[in-house]
Amino acid sequence: MAAAELPMGQVLQAADLRWQTWPETAVAAGYITRKDTPKGLEDTMGATTRSAFLSGEPIRPQKLVRPESGFMAAILPAGYRAVAIVTDTRGSNSAGGFILPNDRVDVIRTFRDEANSKATSSDVQVSQTILTDIRVLAVGQLIQEKNGTNVVTGETATLALTPTQAETITLAQKVGSLSLALRSLADSGRPVEAEAQAAPDTALTVVRFGVARQQTR
Predict the structure, then answer these.
(1) Do the domain assignments include residue 172?
(2) Cβ–Cβ under 8 Å, residues 165 and 215
(3) Pairing between β-strand 64-65 and β-strand 211-216 as defined by DSSP bridges
(4) Which three-class secondary structure string do you get for 72-132?
(5) pLDDT in tens, 43-89
(6) Domain closes at, from 69, 100, 132
(7) How many domains does the chain have?
């Protein structure tokens, strides 16, 4: 059992685990039992939790990552890529430091409009929302809020992106700066159709194998 509340990403130590009497009829498949695994405590120490555990919750191997496996790869959904973007260390590019792992965000690209800047002899800046409803995997080195405290603003935010979105955001970092806009919990998972009606479409030109094509959100 978990001897205390364990956050996602916790490296398990002896003090985090304990044996507890459990009704035999309530033992589910995947539970670690002293009968089947006498050295269960020793074997489990050093593993990393893939998700949070409540105090007294049975420890299951399916929710752990062994030391030889990559933690970020283990929590990344199938078909997605983890991409780190640079954020403003003052917090202005990450909702003032209130963006936490597992929040959903929109990614905004800000860049200099060269044509209008030359035409008006001034510095014209343009902002575009290039990705919407994106899950934040980590902020800096923190992968989960701990003890109810806000994350310390980091220099990078790691996002869960599809391969196409990964291409878009990689190019966007090269030709402008990126900001994260925190979404309301009520807006998370909003249908793409509603998103498209709410804001004009934007795109970047991605060159792959010498062929240029427009890449939308």
Answers:
(1) yes
(2) no
(3) unpaired
(4) HHHHCCCCCEEEEEECCCCCCCEHHHCCCCCCEEEEEEEEECHHHHHHHCCCCEEEEEEEE
(5) 999 888 888 899 999 999 888 888 766 777 777 888 899 998 886 55
(6) 69
(7) 2
108 in a structural domain? yes
Parent domain of 156? 81-216
In a domain, 76, yes or no: no
Examine the domain organization and report whether 89 and 152 are in the same domain.
yes
Decide: pTM greater than 0.85.
no
Residue 105: count of CB within 10 angstroms of its CB: 22
Is the residue at 3 inside a domain? no
pLDDT under 70: residue ranges of the chain: 68-69, 87-97, 116-117, 122-123, 141-155, 188-217
Residues 44 and 12 sit within 8 Å (Cβ to Cβ) = yes
